Amino acid sequence: METKEWPLRPEDIDDPPNRDPPPRYAILVQVVGAEKLWAAEEGVVIPPKVVEGGPKNEEIAAKLPELGKEETLEAVPDTVEKSFSKVSVSFKFPGEPISEAGPEILGPVAPDPLPPPTDPPPVLTRDQEDDLSDSELPPPLPPPEPPVVKFSNIASKEFEVKSNYAMWHKLLQEQMEITVYWTSPSGAMTKPLGMVKLDLFPALALNGESDVLQVSGKLEKIPESLVVEEKGKGKKGKKEKDKDKDKEKEKEKDKDRAEKPEKADKKSKKKKKDASEEASLEETLPVLLEDAVLKFAVSTSEPFWSECNRLHGLVMEVSIKGVLNLPPKVAEFGSRVGKTEKSDKGEKVKGGKGEKGEKADKPEKPEKASKGSKGEKGDKGDPFSYLLVSNFPGFIGTYWWENLKGLLPEQRAELERIKLESGKVEKEEIKVPVPIIRDPEPEPEPGSQAACWKEVKKIINDNYEDEIKALLLEEEERKAQKEEERKMWELRERLLCCDKSITEEDEWEIFREKADEDPEPVVAQPTERLLIKWPDAPFPIIKRFLPGRGAIDMLSAIKMGSKFRGELARYLKPPTDLYDPSFEKYRGCFFLDLSGFLEEGVTCVDVEVPFEQFTLSGADHGITFCQAPPKPSGKKAPKVVEDDDPLPESVDPENVLPNNSWQVSKAVVLMQVRTNRPLQPVWKPPPQPDMTLEEVIPARKKAHTVYDAVKLATLNFGEFITIAADDLIDMYQELTNEKAHKEESEDDHSLSPKSSKRIETKGEIRKKMVRMLRKSGTWNDMMEEMKVRVLKVASEKFREKRRAALDVGKFEFCNDLYITLAEVIYNTLKELMIKKRENKEKEEMKDVDRLRILADEYEASEDYVNAYRCHQERLKGDNMKSADLWFEFGCFCMRVRPKDQGKAEECWREALTLDNRHLLSLQALGCLLWHRGYLTQAEVLLRSAADIHSMEEHISWVILSQIYAAQGKFDNERSSLRRAEKCYDLAKSYRTQYSAPHQLLSPLIRFPFSLGHLIHSSKKTSSVFIDAAAFLLDMHLPVEAHIVLKLDSDIYSCTLDNKWCGARACEMSGDLKGAESFIKEALTISKEHQVTWLLLGHLRYSYKPDFELPVPLQSSLWKGAIDAYAKYFKYHGVSEDMYQYVYLEVGRAYFKLGELDNARKSYLQGCTVKPTSPSFWLEAGITYYHMGDLKHAELALVEGNVLDVQNFQIWAYLTLVCLRMGRDEEAENSFQQSLKTNMDPDLLATIADHFCCVGNFRDGETAFTESLKLKESASVRFYRAEMYHKIGKLLLAKDDYNIVVKLPDVSPLDKSLSISRLTELHDVVKSPPINRYPQEPNYEV
């Protein structure tokens, strides 16, 4: 089928948009041929062309010596001149009457040409046969097969229909019946020969006249009932009527001859014989062959279905096999009915043709339903019938069904529900599987491989028999202990539910008594069971067609965990005068779960649906399917049907609802659901892209060798050993602490003798520890993770020295691997023990890690220049060969304002040049190329990332699917999305506490306010699309994140993480209103989640549009950020995993609002939580400086200077503090240090102003000059001109005044003063300058 031209989404309607409806729909059915209708009798219907091409008449006469020459010559022309029989057909369209058979519609029928004659084997004498052996004798010729009749003429019939759902459903439920009629060669007789049932439903998927459906149908005999009807309907011809009269006359003559036992005349006998032969030759109906087949061609005038229906529509069959595990009273009726039927059958068999048989044939009078007021006690049969009603999956509550038109209310009710009436209790035999008895294995031949293995096993069993027995015994004891604990816990639950007087002190004594009792006797396996069935053999099957939109909606509903409701109720069989007061008790509901269809390629699901408490949840409009029967009206009290079902002892009668019989007995509905195509087809990977990864990223000499990979795998193994050893040590310490506590308690005499216990030894503690590990599953998780790490080391070592490993052999390679792993374990445990004993602190941070922290600090402070410098310094020396560092640098370039996408692409390409299997670089570069429109290269990169098969493979597949969608490859898009969902489910199920951290928690992409880290540190993501959207947002690609979130909105749009990602994407795009709307929706879901309030606070704090906001609006945003952060502290609390820069943002908001004291408190709290952050100390020092507390300002700035020596702001404010405290020399030293860093022009101008105020014009001039180098400012240049004018550098002052006048950003006051200064300098009049720098400096900044 051709690829569709328009994308198919779940929200698409069935019909393509803007398509005019065709004028008419028609289905054309053509009979194009047949094969092997019936066998042609020799000499009856042999065509003339066969005789003409065959031997001459004389040769025929010679081969038939028994016949005379004249008879042979007369027989051959007689057969040649025979006319052939004819075949015609009639069509019966579903829901329409049968059409009459057209005359000779298929034409004459002729057999296949005879095969050419073969030479007969040579005739041997008896002596020759005796001389030859059996093998040398010629094989006998097979009997000749009779010629087979078939035809090839075409018969057609066109049916004009309406294309609607009612017609589709009719074609699904019924088949077209095509009847084949046979007409004798004389034309006197026309009789039905056979019937073909043709399924026209597949023809609805045809794509117009050009598309033809070729099918074949087996021709079967017509049932006798239909044959009788056809005989009655047919009309006899004239010849047929004459023949009937002749037959009647012959019968009368036969009667007369029977009365007169005289010899009949020879001539009459001859005439009778000739007449019978003629009738048998001409009028006998041929017998159909078993493999008689008709061929059909079906076509349509217009396409009945849209592209969506052809691709996604499916036929669903629901089979109700019965209800099992019946309540006691229902089962009692069923067993009673079975006995009655058995006895009746026995009487019939014994009676035969006698009296009992005659009595059995007579209809018996129905017995009364009850005797007396107690109801069914006197009834030998079951007075009840059972009604089952259920929603058909995919109908009620779906978009397509609610908007479907053209159906009557009765039709809609019939289609959307499954309704089975008149159910009864029956017995069913259980097929017991016959055990397969295998033949004993033959003894192996001496010297064979099997004999060698047998000898090896014998040696092992002889030498290590005790060890093997000990292991097996230990395993059996462990299983027995586990089973004993399970039984005791079950017994405990039962006892506590039944006997409320039992206290916990008496529990264990009861357990010991129950455990010592004899085990339960073995019960024989039953061979039959009782269940409720409905009168359809073998069980009712309900078929419905789900269009494409309906199938997509049902798949989405199953993914969301939706179930389909059904009800079962018990009614009295009519007519009856009884009343059932236990109706509510026997009315139950169940919910069908079809999650089995989420597996790939599944088309059949067998489910056992349990009953639940009867509720109206899930019912259509809150109305139950099974209405309660009305109470009988009348003055007399109605006869009541008793129901004495006892409740189990473990059930409290006060808490049992009246409709609990099905639930208490644990009854289940046995159902089978089939589809003609899987809801989740077997996944086929998209084709490989045309380009290769080497073409996108040219190869270069790699910095990482295979040895580095081995080293990395070994280090990962050592990390796992460290983690596992830490857990084991902690567990052992807890047990030893308990032991020490017990010893102290033993020394204390305050305890009673009953509470004292024997002190456990180390061996017992070790055994207890082993039991705890196995019971909790921690040991299995450790073993599985160790397997993964060991396999990684082994594969890398084998890849490094493959040739050497093949040469030395498997034993040597495994020996070397064992030594390597043992050394790693020994060294790791040794280092761990040394650290534990000496209580050493962690090693000093490496320069690379320290620079990364500083870069994050600068980025949080929006000092991108210094952050850029830190990232560059990390790539010095050998670090340039690190793909991780290049990847981090590229991510930072995407976060810079404005983005430097070109630099980011360079960094990621460099990382892939160093390591072309660097997963994060492949994904990041692919996303960036998708954003820039290079779809082919993006496809190559993301397909390479998916082929690495990491734990987070689903992220690559989701992004790759949208690249396929942008290319128009929609089949590949759907395939990628299915693969992504499967990988996501596997990753969630396989992840344990010892698994590697999630990709979004990787430190490589953890930066200030990383959304992926925030989501995964607080909760697990709700869908596969959230992971992909969070990754795109961490790469700062909000447009692409919006595209991925649209896929998630249909299924998981009401989840918190969906709203968080939407708000973050709007924030990056500058859409404040859109971001706040997402936050409001998240607050409607949950008002107590800390991440929602954190996002709201960060949104209001960091909102910076392209235009300047009014002061009141900006102030309201800062106040809103403070309020949101207060809610974040309320619901999260102070802990290590909180957002580390929240105190920084709160303090800055207070500082901008002028609330310096609150700002100071916030900064000091941040210093307490994270004392190694220079940003908190810097901001605290600046706040103290503006508050006038110079002493504390200096202390905070010095602490920050220790953590970050390259921070310009720290040196600048130390300079200002020293100037205000009168320490000019220290101020000069601090200023000189600040000049070695990346400087801020505004802060330099402030320092220059303070230097000039204290009379230090040299450093002031330097500060003014450096500020103007970084940023041209009219006010700074005017102040420098004033300084030059004051110290007598008039020419320099004149130049600065000239520049100030020409600058566009100059203020009117500065411009007028500059003009007046130029006039004075021009006239060489030395007027005194304005005293801008008095002796007492102005400390206002």
UniProtKB/TrEMBL annotation:
<dbReference type="InterPro" id="IPR019734">
    <property type="entry name" value="TPR_rpt"/>
</dbReference>
<feature type="compositionally biased region" description="Basic and acidic residues">
    <location>
        <begin position="1"/>
        <end position="22"/>
    </location>
</feature>
<feature type="region of interest" description="Disordered">
    <location>
        <begin position="627"/>
        <end position="658"/>
    </location>
</feature>
<feature type="compositionally biased region" description="Pro residues">
    <location>
        <begin position="110"/>
        <end position="123"/>
    </location>
</feature>
<dbReference type="GO" id="GO:0070062">
    <property type="term" value="C:extracellular exosome"/>
</dbReference>
<feature type="compositionally biased region" description="Pro residues">
    <location>
        <begin position="137"/>
        <end position="147"/>
    </location>
</feature>
<feature type="compositionally biased region" description="Basic and acidic residues">
    <location>
        <begin position="338"/>
        <end position="380"/>
    </location>
</feature>
<keyword id="KW-0175">Coiled coil</keyword>
<keyword id="KW-0802">TPR repeat</keyword>
<feature type="compositionally biased region" description="Basic and acidic residues">
    <location>
        <begin position="239"/>
        <end position="265"/>
    </location>
</feature>
<feature type="coiled-coil region">
    <location>
        <begin position="461"/>
        <end position="493"/>
    </location>
</feature>
<feature type="region of interest" description="Disordered">
    <location>
        <begin position="230"/>
        <end position="281"/>
    </location>
</feature>
<dbReference type="Pfam" id="PF13414">
    <property type="entry name" value="TPR_11"/>
</dbReference>
<feature type="region of interest" description="Disordered">
    <location>
        <begin position="739"/>
        <end position="760"/>
    </location>
</feature>
<feature type="region of interest" description="Disordered">
    <location>
        <begin position="1"/>
        <end position="23"/>
    </location>
</feature>
<feature type="region of interest" description="Disordered">
    <location>
        <begin position="336"/>
        <end position="380"/>
    </location>
</feature>
<feature type="region of interest" description="Disordered">
    <location>
        <begin position="98"/>
        <end position="148"/>
    </location>
</feature>
<dbReference type="GO" id="GO:0031514">
    <property type="term" value="C:motile cilium"/>
</dbReference>
<keyword id="KW-0677">Repeat</keyword>
<feature type="repeat" description="TPR">
    <location>
        <begin position="1140"/>
        <end position="1173"/>
    </location>
</feature>
<dbReference type="InterPro" id="IPR052628">
    <property type="entry name" value="CFAP70"/>
</dbReference>
<dbReference type="InterPro" id="IPR011990">
    <property type="entry name" value="TPR-like_helical_dom_sf"/>
</dbReference>
<dbReference type="GO" id="GO:0060271">
    <property type="term" value="P:cilium assembly"/>
</dbReference>
<dbReference type="GO" id="GO:0003341">
    <property type="term" value="P:cilium movement"/>
</dbReference>
<protein>
    <submittedName>
        <fullName>Uncharacterized protein</fullName>
    </submittedName>
</protein>
